[in-house]
């Protein structure tokens, strides 16, 4: 194994395009918060949750490009499809539920802090996505994949 061989992965158009799909979604989160809340928050570049879903964008780009390059009946496309479905389901289901539970626990902790003067670190509430955020991420992923495939 040569370390230099590992870096040839960045010559793979699907890998590079998926990375850009992820970046596009994260940048859109910053822009949307800037427009909606009039604040610039670069921490969103590394945050999960929010509009659009970068996870959905990335796996949809992966699925679509794999299908276009490897064929719709290939094993690789099947794997990419199953991965995309699991990731998007998890983002809008399990992770969203965990975020809702964190919100309730944080509210309970605020009540306890007022009564007993106990302080603690808040749980992260923005973990998952609404179905709309997942859908928007998927649409972004499709757009990035098609631009990459047909124009780059």
Shape: elongated
Largest sheet: none
| End-to-end gap | 31 Å
Q: How many β strands by DSSP?
A: 0
H/E element string? HHHHHH
Poorly predicted runs: none
Class from secondary-structure proportions: mainly alpha
Mean pLDDT: 86
The Cα radius of gyration reads: 19 Å
SS summary, helix count? 6
Secondary-structure map:
Elements: H1 3-6, H2 13-37, H3 54-70, H4 75-92, H5 94-116, H6 131-151
Helix pairs in contact: 2-3, 2-6, 3-4, 3-6, 4-5
Outline of the structure:
This protein is mainly α and 152 residues long. It has helices spanning 3-6, 13-37, 54-70, 75-92, 94-116, 131-151.
Describe the protein in words.
There is one protein chain. The protein has helices spanning 3-6, 13-37, 54-70, 75-92, 94-116, 131-151. 71% of the residues lie in helices and 0% in strands. The protein is mainly alpha-helical and 152 residues long. The mean pLDDT is 86.
What structural keywords apply?
mainly alpha, 6 helices, 152 residues
């Amino acid at each position: 194994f040569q370390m230099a061989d590992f870096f040839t992965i960045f010559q793979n158009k699907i890998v590079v395009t998926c990375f850009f799909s992820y970046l596009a979604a994260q940048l859109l989160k910053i822009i949307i918060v800037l427009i909606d809340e009039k604040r610039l928050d670069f921490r969103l570049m590394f945050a999960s949750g929010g509009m659009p879903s970068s996870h959905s964008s990335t796996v949809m780009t992966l699925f679509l490009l794999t299908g276009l390059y490897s064929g719709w009946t290939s094993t690789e496309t099947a794997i990419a499809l199953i991965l995309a479905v699991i990731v998007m389901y998890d983002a809008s289901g399990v992770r969203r539920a965990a975020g809702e539970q964190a919100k309730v626990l944080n509210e309970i902790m605020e009540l306890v802090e007022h009564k007993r003067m106990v302080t603690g670190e808040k749980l992260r509430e923005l973990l998952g996505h609404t179905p709309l955020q997942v859908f928007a991420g998927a649409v972004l992923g499709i757009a990035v994949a098609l631009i990459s495939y047909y124009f780059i």
